[in-house]
């Protein structure tokens, strides 16, 4: 195996989104602007690590109704619970270890808010949201939503740790999330001193994002809430300097033009303008 090393390393940017939800925006990276911000991580558009935070009783921090078009969202929960509702009639509860895959396609409105018991008693919330670009030919697909319950994504032991595969295949395990772009999305936990060897298709983009702890890849280290984008090779060895929890992302680049504004990701500025017009005209629907 020709081992990949860290090609670029950047730290996420603390910010807020939705209704007062603190998060670290990991992709696009700090200082990146325009569509160039997306090319290095193609086919991934955005990665947010929201929380960890403790909701006090009575808070309504969450993500109220908002639109999307032209991509998929994969939301993975580490702590707490959220409820999802959208304009297609999709609804579900997101619990720790579970995920939801939402295809915005030609347009959707959705919300992700704390469950009623969190509103009453408070509690911890933490998770990761990933935006996955849709190929040009799939951007007008009908919108849809799929619940991915924890039982569908069990932890699987690996030497010195465990792995949960959300999409793609790693350690002989295939995740349940169906994406139109070939990719891997996995959560890996390693004990201090452990090492994990991960084969990767040579043509794929690959990145490692520690949520906690520090990992060594080649001669460099990556710590919490950083993005380690990997160079060429057909695999990587992740060594845990400390006990570590990391997201592993890899995928086949689309290499298509990107036009982006707020919650819409299309191929041309004209398509972005039409997305605004469709949303304002109510063509994305409403949450019942």
Quick gist of this model?
It is built from 3 helices and 26 strands.
Topology of helices and strands:
Blueprint: E1 6-11, E2 13-17, E3 21-27, H1 36-39, E4 44-55, E5 63-68, E6 71-79, E7 82-86, E8 91-94, E9 99-103, E10 108-114, H2 116-121, E11 123-133, E12 144-148, E13 156-158, E14 161-167, E15 169-170, E16 173-174, E17 183-190, E18 195-199, E19 205-212, E20 215-217, E21 220-222, E22 226-230, E23 235-240, E24 244-251, E25 259-261, E26 264-266, H3 269-280
Antiparallel strand pairs: 1-22, 2-3, 3-4, 4-11, 5-10, 6-9, 6-11, 7-8, 7-10, 9-12, 13-14, 14-17, 15-16, 17-24, 18-23, 19-22, 19-24, 20-21, 20-23, 25-26
What does this structure look like?
By secondary structure, the chain is mainly beta. The chain has a single domain, classed as Sandwich (Jelly Rolls). Helix content is 8%, strand content 51%. The protein contains three helices and 26 strands. The chain has helices at residues 36-39, 116-121, 269-280, and strands at 6-11, 13-17, 21-27, 44-55, 63-68, 71-79, 82-86, 91-94, 99-103, 108-114, 123-133, 144-148, 156-158, 161-167, 169-170, 173-174, 183-190, 195-199, 205-212, 215-217, 220-222, 226-230, 235-240, 244-251, 259-261, 264-266. It is globular and about 55 Å long. The N and C termini lie far apart (52 Å).
């Amino acid at each position: 195996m020709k081992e990949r090393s860290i090609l670029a390393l950047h730290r996420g940017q603390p910010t807020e989104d939705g209704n007062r939800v603190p998060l670290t925006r990991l992709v696009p990276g700090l200082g990146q602007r325009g569509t160039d911000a997306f090319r290095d991580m193609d086919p991934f558009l955005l990665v947010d690590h929201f929380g960890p935070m403790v909701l006090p009783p009575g808070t309504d921090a969450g993500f109220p109704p908002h639109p999307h078009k032209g991509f998929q969202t994969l939301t993975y929960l580490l702590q707490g619970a959220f409820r999802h509702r959208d304009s297609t009639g999709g609804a579900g509860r997101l619990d720790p270890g579970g995920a939801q895959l939402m295809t915005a396609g030609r347009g959707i409105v959705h919300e992700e808010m704390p469950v009623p018991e969190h509103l009453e008693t408070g509690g911890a919330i933490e998770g990761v949201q990933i935006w996955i670009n849709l190929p040009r030919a799939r951007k007008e697909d009908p919108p849809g939503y799929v619940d991915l319950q924890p039982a569908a994504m069990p932890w699987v032991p690996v030497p010195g740790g465990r792995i949960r595969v959300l999409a793609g295949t790693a350690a002989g395990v295939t995740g349940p999330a169906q994406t139109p772009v070939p990719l891997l999305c996995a959560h890996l936990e390693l004990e201090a001193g452990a090492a994990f060897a991960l084969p990767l298709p040579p043509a794929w983009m690959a990145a490692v994002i520690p949520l906690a702890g520090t990992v060594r890849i080649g001669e460099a280290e990556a710590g919490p809430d950083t993005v380690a984008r990997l160079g060429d090779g057909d695999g990587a060895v992740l060594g845990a300097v400390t006990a570590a929890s990391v997201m592993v992302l890899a995928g086949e680049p689309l290499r298509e033009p990107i036009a982006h504004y707020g919650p819409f990701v299309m191929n041309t500025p004209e398509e972005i303008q039409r997305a605004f017009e469709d949303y304002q005209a109510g063509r994305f629907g409403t949450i019942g």
